[in-house]
Amino acid sequence: MLKVILVVVGLILLTIGIVWLIDKFVPKKLKPILNIVLWALIVFLGYLTFMSVYGEIKFNKLKDERYRSVIAKLIDIRDAQLAHRTVNKNFAGNFDDLIRFIDTAKFTITQRRDSTIIDEELTRRFGGVETTRDIVIIDTLDFVSVRDSLFGDDPRYKTMMNLPEGVGPDGAKFKLEAGKLDDSGIAIFEASVSKDVILHDQEKNLVEKEKEVMSVDGVRGPKLKVGSMQEDVTKGNWPKNLITKKE
Q: Which of 41, 70, 104, 202 has the fewest CB within 10 Å, making it most exposed?
């Protein structure tokens, strides 16, 4: 966009220069008409410059608003997936399984305590001299609903697969994948949505430029995502300034 602005500004300056030359060298009879035409051109080029700047400002504001609402949903998905891994030792590969898990699963509340017991083997080895050893006992105290722990009475998890209202075309959904790393067997997942989908109704050149962002204060790459199918990470690719809910 900077190149466009520089070109337009250059044309404005050139037009102003032409107006000056006309004022100096063109016969008086022709001056009024030419001046009107050239000043109209200056106004038009100024308008194009303003709209170029203002259009990108509006795009950035709308983009950030949509990103924030999408990120809030991705955080919900991430929290649900982490709970799934805590209980089942893996991640859900689709939203139906993830929602069913939230509806039915429970966290186990445990308590660790140290204790001392008689080590019978050492006691026999030492000729009956009572010998003890320390152990850790884990007591199960209670079971707590995953749904109540993560969402309380809020049913929003039932539509976590859908993009927020007003974001993306009708029926747009997040993509959810899960699996294990080949080399280590560590469970991994990724939930994502393309910037093309989030910004589907915006100017294509601005969307293409946004997909190439790699700065630390922007959303890197062509999509918003949490987790990864290539490495053991469960964080998102967004900067902190776009977070509207506690992670």
A: 104
Tokens linked to 9: 């500004």
pLDDT of residue 15: 65
Structure tokens at 194: 């393309």
| 236 and 169 part of one domain | yes
Instruction: Assign 233 a pLDDT band (cuts: 50, 70, 90).
Output: very high
Question: Tokens for 52?
Answer: 């170029």
DSSP-H helix ranges across 26-91:
31-88
Backbone angles phi, psi at 26, to 5 degrees: -85, 140
Residues 8 and 93 in one domain: no
- Residue 146, domain member (yes or no): no
What pLDDT, on the 0 to 100 scale, is given for residue 123? 72
Which of 70, 51, 72 shows the shortest CA–CA distance to 199? 70
- Does 148 reside within a domain? no
Residue-by-residue DSSP string for 228-240:
-SSSS---BSS-G
Residue-level pLDDT at 174: 97
> What mean pLDDT is predicted for residues 150-173?
93
Measure CA of the first residue to CA of the last residue in the chain; give whole Å: 35
* Domain presence at residue 60: no
What's the chain's average pLDDT?
Answer: 82
pLDDT for 227 equals 97
Given a contact cutoff of 8 angstroms between Cβ atoms, the answer to whether 83 and 233 are in contact is no
Q: Given this model, what pLDDT does residue 62 score?
A: 94
**Domain total in the chain:** 2
The whole-number average pLDDT for the span 165-191 is 94
125: in domain = no
Query: Tokens for 136?
Result: 């850790």
Same domain, 16 and 94: no
Residue 83 corresponds to which tokens in the numbers above? 């709970």
Which range of residues forms the domain containing residue 40?
Answer: 2-53
